[in-house]
Amino acid sequence: MDENPENRDNARIRYKVPVTIENLKAGIIYQARMINYSKYGLYFETDNWLNLGEEVFIGIESSPYSVSHDTYECLRAKIMWRKKLPISHFKYGYGVQYSIDYDKKKSRDSRLKIVEDQRKHTRKRYVQDLLFNARNKILRGLAKNISPSGVFIETHHRLDVGCIITLVVPLKKGKTAKIKGEVIWSSPNGFGVNFITIKK
User: Which one-letter DSSP state was computed for residue 188?
Assistant: First the structure.
């Protein structure tokens, strides 16, 4: 493990990786870069303004907390501080504290282990081309992660919140599931869907 040059109670460990920041109140996803992490939180940089005290979900494509580094993890956190970055690729830097009680968590080994997803249903990394029907048109997108209750679809097609769509999701053994869902948030990069009905 790295040394603790800042003499913190919990050392920051350098770990640069792209992350997504989901604003829970606005339902918007921002692109960001994680710079370092500790047992209780992490530091990331982004071009987007986030308010202090806001709750966010942080999606980490290659989580340092998992046994397998190809694991996608989503952690709930609170924005604790913000600073402007005059000399950086990004405009702002943020420090967050995880929204769980770590005193009740035990590590399985000497590495820092965190954490189940704090969502009602855990999101799993799921990269798959999809076709979906919206506004009487067949459109194409790329699913990036999925849970039993919803999916994030990356696409250049802009859909309004509340729009009802139908999509076909490939399953194992050549089977598919026909899913009716509602767009619950939308951004220039894609949108999040809450499943309404699933037919296999």
Answer: T
pLDDT for res 2: 37
Q: Average of pLDDT values for 191-199?
A: 84
Q: Are 37 and 111 in contact (CB under 8 A)?
A: no
Distance CA(130)–CA(15), nearest Å, equals: 32
Domain encompassing residue 181: 124-199
CA distance to 79, 107, 140, 156, per residue, from 41 (Å):
10, 16, 36, 32
Its pTM stands at: 0.53
In a domain, 7, yes or no: no
Helix (H, G, I), strand (E, B) or coil at 25: coil
Q: How far apart are alpha carbons 131 and 197 in whole angstroms?
A: 17
State whether residue 174 is helix, strand or coil. Answer: helix
